[in-house]
Amino acid sequence: MGLAAGVDIITTRIARSMPLTPATLAMLEDGIPDAVRLLLPEANLDAIVFGCTSGSAIIGPAKIAQQIAKIRPDVPITNPASAAVEALRYLGCRKIVFIAPYTQEVAEITSSVFANAGIGFSDRVCFGLKSDVEIATPGLEHYRRAIAQANTATGDAIFLSCTTAATLDLIAPLEAETGLPVITSNQAAFWQALQLIGRTSSLPGFGRLLA
């Protein structure tokens, strides 16, 4: 799958148990080395993204990097949580509306990544969902309602958490409606991966961050 001209994305998955809890998300760490072994072992990779926002918060970026480096040393590594923090800093955003599909417990841990990075919250919203199927279901109208009920007055960006959430197509309409930059987990990870490989080409339709 091409992200931008001349850029290919190779993906694999780590099996995980449901429901999504801090304990089941923490178990992803053990599956990282075997998953990395599946990523075109005969080819050079320019960057690796661990694609789970809440898992990144629970396991921690340092541990994720260590597990990946066991198999692919010297390859730049990122994850959606760290990438979102860097994306918000790049855009000069200091206070966000944090919207997550998870349970309150998982949302609290995930939002701590931003708090620890000095990013404040205009509001925090969670949907209370416990499985990938549930998380992938909410669409534009669901997120519109959530944002309409949130306190956006003091925020300078909206963050839609979770790589499973189908939010890439929501970025443009939500930015147009709210006037705020919208950052999503996958979009931020794509942006950070492009930064790591030295590509800065714009990707229209995916918000201010990739414009």
Automatic annotation (TrEMBL):
InterPro entries: Iso_Racemase_Enz_sf, MaiA/AMDase. It comes from the Bacteria. Pfam families: Amdase. Gene3D superfamilies: 3.40.50.12500. This is Asp/Glu racemase. It comes from Paraburkholderia rhynchosiae. The lineage of its organism: Bacteria, Pseudomonadati, Pseudomonadota, Betaproteobacteria, Burkholderiales.
